[in-house]
């Protein structure tokens, strides 16, 4: 059985991964084509984002039918073959389950709109007056979170897009429908679940205006969330000891995350939180521009590492996913130090305590595309915010700069397989374009060069498998006040591993002797992104984005 503490998960956004039939959309057969590539990288699990039947308003996070494969992505036979072919390479499949909401095209919602009581109770409807929404809560994609339905003279709640209606978890019948969905996919041989915005499912019993925020404090980590997760666990994946789960936790707290992931609580295996990815939000606002706050980033990592270890919880470690801009464009320098900054960021995240996640293309350094016109964007959130910023009077150039840095489409461009047309992603017209840099930055080039970012990731993955200290060791932040360096020690019994990362394009000097006792210890270099000797521990000069890990025994 796999040990998730020694495993690495690779996230696939199928729509942009590999198109096998030339229709411009990636598909499941495309994923099968690339399994040998993933095997070479050395990952243990593939997390597939939604490929169920969906109108694709939110690229599949708006589900119309939980039990079938959308024809854009292929067929159920393709999925079964994918499970089988992955298994034969010792890779398991994690499915993405979206249970906070369904598409308004789901038959449950259609029946609800037709007035069927049973199905109205699957959602959150409230009596109200036209133009006076039930509360002032904001949808996460912009606008009010309540939508008025003329025919019923009622509103329904949608924390996301207006076509994503929130489900009513207080209804037992609905919860049982959900268990059926999970059990259906377990029978297909799936070995894990990623639960979309799962900490938002428990809504308050009465709805009131939020006079100090956007409403999230009323439904985030809601009052029945732990009860609902325990019940979900007990009725589905909790019956098997080889299934892992990861919950996507929006605006959560360490305290709750410990409960979600402490094995004694019997809820989930691990959690994603996003606090470290808000360090470039000006006054907490995503749609703004700001250099990242490095001190804050270090403190967040330190608090979460310590908090989760002390509480026996488990973190998912990640920089990138389909909702985040590319991390090298964000916290690195892709123009002057593409390889150095991409590999430094990888070291910093991979060797902490938790299970690392790699997002497609990250392993060979894909960057943000820098789209220049709104026509190149596809994402519903980006387009909504384009319009919101326009209506606030922000000028076009500014808006485009914000989108270039913040849009979710930054990570949704086609995987750059090689230097052929459309980056080798499709023979047709891609649903979203690849940036021109695919001619240089692509998987083929990375595979052909043993010194590439790809092989650096491969090494990081193997270190976690070999070094128990990385998988199970304690965490201590080093050089706490250093303005450029994020360094930490992992420790297990009498062995320690020191990880050092220069987050800037400037050289700097560090002194490890003050914090680590090196006397009489053997030093072994595990990985580094420059060719250097790490045999002295005072006045070490670090080059731009230099990063290394050494083992002391
Ligand atoms: C999650 C998904 C995101 C989606 C949202 C609504 O945050 O990762 O892509 O838009 O939930 O389902």
TrEMBL record:
Keywords recorded for this protein, A-Z:
Cytoplasm, Glycosidase, Hydrolase
Q: What is its EC number?
A: 3.2.1.93
Subcellular localization(s) per the UniProt record: Cytoplasm
- Record has Hydrolase as a keyword: yes
Q: Which GO terms describe its cellular component?
A: cytoplasm
Q: Which GO terms describe its molecular function?
A: alpha,alpha-phosphotrehalase activity; alpha-amylase activity
Q: What class of enzyme is it?
A: hydrolase
GO biological-process terms attached to the record: trehalose catabolic process
Q: Which residues form the Glycosyl hydrolase family 13 catalytic domain?
A: 11-412
- Report the InterPro entries cross-referenced here: GH, GH13_cat_dom, Glyco_hydro_b, Malt_amylase-like_C, O16G_dom_2, Trehalose_TreC
Main location, first listed in the record:
cytoplasm
Q: Which family does it belong to?
A: Belongs to the glycosyl hydrolase 13 family.
User: Which NCBIfam families does the entry mention?
Assistant: PRK10933.1 (NF008183), trehalose_treC (TIGR02403)
Q: What is this protein called?
A: Alpha,alpha-phosphotrehalase
């Amino acid at each position: 059985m796999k040990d998730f503490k020694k495993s690495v998960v690779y996230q696939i956004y199928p729509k942009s991964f590999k198109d096998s039939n030339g229709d411009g959309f990636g598909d499941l057969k495309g994923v099968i084509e690339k399994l040998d590539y993933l095997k070479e990288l050395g990952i243990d699990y593939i997390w597939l984002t939604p490929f169920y039947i969906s109108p694709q308003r939110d690229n599949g996070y708006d589900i119309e039918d939980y039990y079938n494969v959308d024809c854009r992505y292929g067929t159920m036979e393709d999925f079964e073959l994918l499970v089988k072919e992955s298994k034969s390479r010792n890779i398991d499949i994690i499915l993405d389950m979206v249970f906070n909401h369904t598409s308004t095209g789901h038959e449950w919602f259609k029946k609800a709109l037709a007035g069927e009581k049973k199905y109205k109770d699957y959602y959150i409807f409230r009596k109200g007056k036209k133009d006076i929404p039930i509360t002032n809560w904001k949808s996460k994609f912009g606008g009010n979170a309540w939508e008025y339905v003329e025919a019923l003279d009622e509103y329904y709640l949608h924390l996301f897009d207006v076509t994503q209606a929130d489900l009513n978890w207080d209804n037992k019948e609905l919860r049982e429908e959900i268990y059926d969905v999970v059990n259906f996919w377990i029978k297909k041989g799936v070995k894990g679940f990623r639960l979309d915005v799962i900490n938002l499912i428990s809504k308050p019993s009465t709805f009131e205006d939020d006079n100090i925020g956007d409403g999230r404090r009323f439904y985030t980590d809601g009052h029945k969330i732990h009860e609902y997760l325990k019940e979900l666990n007990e009725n589905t994946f909790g019956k098997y000891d080889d299934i892992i789960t990861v919950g996507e936790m929006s605006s959560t707290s360490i305290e709750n995350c410990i409960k979600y992931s402490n094995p004694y609580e019997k809820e989930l295996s691990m959690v994603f939180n996003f606090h470290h990815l808000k360090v470039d939000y000006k006054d907490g606002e995503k749609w703004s521009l700001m250099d990242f706050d490095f001190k804050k980033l270090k403190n967040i990592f330190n608090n979460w590492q310590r908090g989760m270890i002390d509480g026996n919880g488990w973190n998912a470690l990640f920089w990138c996913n389909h909702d985040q801009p590319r991390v090298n464009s964000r916290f690195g320098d892709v123009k002057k130090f593409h390889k150095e900054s991409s590999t430094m960021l990888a070291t910093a995240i991979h060797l902490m305590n938790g299970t690392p996640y790699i997002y497609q293309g990250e392993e060979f350094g894909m960057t943000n595309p820098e789209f220049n016109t709104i026509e190149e964007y596809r994402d519903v959130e980006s387009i909504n915010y384009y319009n919101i910023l326009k209506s606030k009077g922000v000028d076009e150039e500014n808006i485009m700069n914000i989108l270039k840095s913040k849009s979710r489409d930054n990570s949704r461009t086609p995987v750059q397989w090689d230097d052929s047309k459309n980056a080798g992603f499709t023979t047709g017209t891609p649903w979203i374009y690849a940036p021109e840099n695919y001619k240089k930055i692509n998987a083929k080039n990375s595979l052909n060069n043993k010194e590439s970012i790809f092989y650096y990731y491969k090494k990081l993955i193997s270190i976690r498998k070999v070094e128990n200290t990385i998988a199970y060791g304690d965490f201590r932040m080093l050089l706490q006040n250093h303005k450029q360096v994020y360094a930490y020690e992992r420790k297990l019994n009498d062995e320690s591993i020191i990880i050092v990362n220069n987050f800037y394009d400037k050289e700097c000097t560090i002194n490890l002797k003050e914090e680590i006792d090196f006397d009489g210890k053997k030093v072994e270099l595990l990985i580094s992104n420059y060719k250097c000797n790490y045999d002295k521990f005072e006045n070490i000069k670090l080059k731009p984005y230099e990063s290394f890990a050494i083992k002391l025994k």
